[in-house]
Prior knowledge:
The chain has helices at residues 2-21, 48-59, 71-85, 100-113, 138-160, 181-187, 196-220, 246-259, 263-266, 268-275, 303-316; strands at residues 39-43, 63-68, 90-94, 119-122, 164-169, 226-232, 286-288, 291-292. It is α/β, with parallel strands linked by helices. Helix 2 (48-59) runs parallel beside helix 3. The longest helix is centred in the middle third of the chain and has 25 residues, at 196-220. The model is unreliable at 12-23 (pLDDT under 50). It comes from Sander lucioperca (Pike-perch).
Amino acid sequence: MILEMLLFAALLVGGYFLLHVTFLKLPRCKSAVKLHGKTAIITGANTGIGKTTAMDLARRGARVILACRDRRRAEAAAQEIIQETGNSQVIFMQLDLASLKSVRSFAEDFLRSESRLDLLINNAGLMNGGKTEDGFGMIFGVNHLGHFLLTVLLLERLKASGRSRVVTVASKAYEMGKVDFNCLTTHKDVALGDSDLQLFYKYCHSKLCNVLFTYELAKRLQGSNVTCYSLHPGAIKTEIGRYAGFWWSLMMKPIIFLFFVDSESGAQTTLHCALEPGIEHASGQYFSCCAPKLNIESKATDDAVAKKLWELSESFCGLA
């Protein structure tokens, strides 16, 4: 009996290991490009995928701006990256994506202090309830609207810097998302409710907004040297659900522990979109596993919805 149990346990461990080195293993960014003289902004760069991305870009010689809300954590991350890479050009700049005023202040400070921008990586994301400073749903406001305004305010500097890229971290969760314009105009949110399940669906809706934003942005950048990409990083162990309720955490933590991979693996498609030469023709496309997805759902490339979302976002940000 004991021998059978040991054999069964060995099979489970072996199967789990095999799963991780086959189905759960993500491809790596193969680009060897160096970034000396280049400047990158990464939102949410004090933890998870953003921090891993910042570490990689710093190793390549880039000047890296950590655009984060939490000063203490961001400054600690900056020091860690400097010590790890030997690149002293890693700088924290305050950015709260839940405040359009903060986004504008960040953009003004950046444009005043930095002469170029080669990479804008819209990485930050959350799945929290509540409202932003401006009264928008927190998930919509941070995951989409804050990044929308940030990108628009920095577009001219991107264009002036030669070949540059905008990379937005979306998610495969977009497949479960929709854009309810009636709810957006009436309630300034993508959906109603703050239960764990409702927050998850709001997250899905916001990720569809990320993909549509990138799709529309590519059209508006035609004829310039700026290209843009959205992506699914994979099933990654991050802090995005750190404020989830007890029962949601109880259900998800074992799944995340067993089947999700680390942030280094999760950063690879971001790095591919930021660094890989010769993908300019794929501007506006959605990437996964370091490659463009050819079978993306039609709702993510709906011209009318993408244009309407852009125009509504402009209105929300006071740009229209």
